[in-house]
Design goal:
Blueprint: H1 3-24, H2 28-66, E1 74-76, E2 79-81, E3 83-85, E4 91-94, H3 95-101, H4 108-114, E5 119-120, E6 129-131, H5 132-139, H6 145-172
Antiparallel strand pairs: 1-2, 3-4, 4-6, 5-6
Length: 173
């Protein structure tokens, strides 16, 4: 056990021992002396362990709160984007969200003719989803500034991390 952790543990046992002696003899003077002698030891304990304990508690609470959406929450300019990932590691974006962001994006009927293999429906209540790679190739032809910025975000936040994760999984297996 490292030395910085050993000293506070000894301080705790020393303080508890002094307080117990003062309590057992029912002497206010011994108890007061034990409090005075153990106060610096407890101060060391508070100095070293309390900040770490609070920091770890806050981090644990944050991890607990975000565990359901970790790595799956995507947002472009304040708009939440529903992104699903299939078993192959491909990511799919909801077309309804794309329509709100990309001006002049084709309707779902047109997308079904253009990309029959890259269009799917994960759950009926969420609508249609377009594969991120197909969306990227479709947006590649656009000259609109807003669409180019969205495509850059799509590559940086959705496509490239998915490719890195799939490469990492292939290396591990």
């Amino acid at each position: 056990m490292p030395m910085p952790y050993l000293l506070p543990i000894l301080a705790i046992f020393a303080a508890l021992g002094m307080w117990t002696v003062g309590w057992m003899f029912d002497s206010a003077a011994i108890f007061a002396l034990s409090v005075v002698l153990s106060a610096p030891l407890l101060g060391m304990l508070v100095r070293f362990w309390l900040p770490k304990l609070v920091g770890q508690s806050l981090r644990a609470a944050k991890e607990l709160a975000y565990r359901d959406i970790e790595g799956r929450h995507f947002e472009y300019k304040g708009r939440a984007m529903l992104v699903r990932e299939d078993l192959a590691g491909d990511r799919w974006l909801r077309t309804r969200d794309i329509h709100k962001i990309v001006p002049g994006f084709p309707r779902d009927a047109v997308l079904q003719r253009l990309y029959p293999q890259a269009l799917g429906q994960a759950e009926a209540r969420h609508g249609l989803f377009l594969q991120a790679q197909a969306l990227d190739s479709h947006l590649q032809r656009s000259q609109d500034d807003a669409t180019i910025r969205f495509r850059h975000w799509l590559q940086r936040e959705v496509i490239f991390p998915a490719q890195r994760a799939s490469q990492k999984n292939r290396i591990q297996t």
